[in-house]
Design brief:
Length: about 240
């Protein structure tokens, strides 16, 4: 009789709560592992940047022969087209909103798009800051960058818009269409020493590996905390 009463009054196992905790722990651990993977990728990228920074400057033709084309120092000689300038929108520098100024430069080995640097936006969005680009043919030195297309970003510029064009991301095929010419598959980030009057504080790796490791520890810590809280609550419930 005692065993029957004890069995009937024993609380049922909280299967739904257990399932929720299990899903939460799996998700949190997955986020932690993803941050660890991102940290390893950033570390590899930093090592590549350091290694390639000591490479002798390449010509555009030599650079294009590389399978991995980013982070390589190179130089071109050519004349920019100051009438066809792209303003890359929503670039932040020292807490201020502005644009990156991108200009096509005609070289002996094709048209090279050069990022001249950052300029602060005007107070009115309808007014673009004035940039003076010297149209004289000259030497340009910088580092190669390969832009990534973000499918979540919606482009607002159209071919019917007048120059300069305000773009939301660097889409080389689309920009080639706007220009009516084929652009090089890399973008030159102009050297800070070039006297163009714009800010060139290039950050190829925005978030350091240490920050990714820190986020990973936080996610793993949340997973452990979630599991501990569940176990403690379960023990108290059974008592």
């Amino acid at each position: 009789m005692v065993d029957t009463v004890t069995s009937s009054t024993r609380p049922k196992h909280p299967y739904f709560a257990t399932l929720l905790v299990l899903v939460a722990v799996i998700i949190l651990c997955g986020l932690g592992l993803w941050q660890m993977q991102r940290a390893e990728q950033k570390q590899s990228r930093l090592e590549q940047i350091e290694q390639r920074s000591s490479t002798a400057r390449l010509s555009l033709r030599e650079l294009l022969e590389f399978e991995e084309k980013r982070d390589l120092p190179f130089e071109v000689f050519g004349a920019p087209d100051p009438e066809k300038v792209f303003y890359l929108d929503n670039r932040i520098e020292s807490g201020h909103v502005g644009y990156h100024v991108l200009v096509p430069v005609e070289t002996d080995y094709g048209v090279q798009l050069i990022n001249f640097g950052w300029i602060k936006a005007e107070q009115l969005r309808t007014q673009l800051p004035e940039v003076k680009i010297d149209a004289t043919a000259q030497q340009y030195i910088g580092v190669s960058a390969v832009p990534n297309i973000n499918p979540m970003v919606t482009e607002t510029a159209t071919k019917q818009d007048g120059w300069p064009l305000v773009i939301q991301q660097i889409d080389l095929p689309l920009m080639s269409t706007f220009l009516g010419i084929q652009l090089s598959p890399v973008v030159m980030q102009l050297s800070p020493e070039h006297p163009a009057g714009l800010v060139r504080n290039w950050k190829p790796v925005v978030m350091s590996p240490q920050k990714h490791y820190g986020y990973a520890i936080q996610w793993f810590g949340l997973a452990i905390a979630c599991l501990v809280i569940y176990i403690v609550a379960l023990l108290k419930r059974n008592r």
